[in-house]
Amino acid sequence: GQNIDQPTEMTATEGAIVQINCTYQTSGFNGLFWYQQHAGEAPTFLSYNVLDGLEEKGRFSSFLSRSKGYSYLLLKELQMKDSASYFCAGTNAGKSTFGDGTTLTVKP
Amino acid sequence: GAVVSQHPSWVICKSGTSVKIECRSLDFQATTMFWYRQFPKQSLMLMATSNEGSKATYEQGVEKDKFLINHASLTLSTLTVTSAHPEDSSFYICSARAADRDYEQFFGPGTRLTVL
């Protein structure tokens, strides 16, 4: 199977750092995405990891360990607008399977 | 670049009617388009994968006769929900993948369907 697990909810303070973890069964995926989705809107692409290690893009970084079936999304210098749902999604042969999402609430 | 549009953005229909949703890639050719359904506060569930000029591949549990998908050109795919029922009310999202970008999907803004 390709179960993907991530926390349901997280809360953090404006200006802080938050790490959203994602674990998945190691077989089947050849890449891992992170998406952000604001309520009522479609997801937007944040990152894609196909090799082990850390990918940094401004305030957002994503890490992947294929052998451990583990990824995380790191958000730095949190802003109120970062309050959203964050989905990790494994991809195989171009098809993505989404986790259930983590709802992040950023408080002042 | 890489803009995907959907039309309509929302639709309300009566039970038993059919609704067509269009998904267009505006500035690139989409060899593959994906259709997802998302219920409130839930994840995106892939319904089907659509390749231009061929039949769509449906995920397990998705009725192909109820959710008709047509991918007639490299910039347009349509999803028709036939004989819609209240339980079909959901947020339908398409995404498109370009031929030269083998991993990245570009999502449309979604269509909210409400069946009365």
Descriptive notes:
The complex is a heterodimer of chains A (108) and B (116). Chain A is 0% helix and 58% strand. Chain A has strands spanning 4-5, 9-13, 18-24, 31-37, 44-49, 53-57, 60-65, 70-75, 84-92, 95-98, 102-107. In chain A, strands 2, 4, 5, 9, 10 and 11 form a six-stranded mixed β-sheet that branches. Chain A has a five-stranded antiparallel β-sheet with strand order 1-3-8-7-6, with no helix packed on it. In chain A, strand 9 and strand 10 form a beta hairpin. With 116 residues, chain B is mostly beta strands. Chain B has no helices and eleven strands. In chain B, strands 2, 4, 5, 6, 9, 10 and 11 form a seven-stranded mixed β-sheet that branches. In chain B, strands 1-3-8-7 form a four-stranded antiparallel β-sheet, with no helix packed on it. The chains are: A mainly beta (108), B mainly beta (116). Chains A and B meet through strand 5 and strand 10 of A and strand 5 and strand 10 of B.
Comma- or semicolon-separated keywords:
heterodimer; A: 108 residues; six-stranded mixed beta sheet; five-stranded antiparallel beta sheet; 11 strands; B: 116 residues; mainly beta; seven-stranded mixed beta sheet; four-stranded antiparallel beta sheet; 54% strand
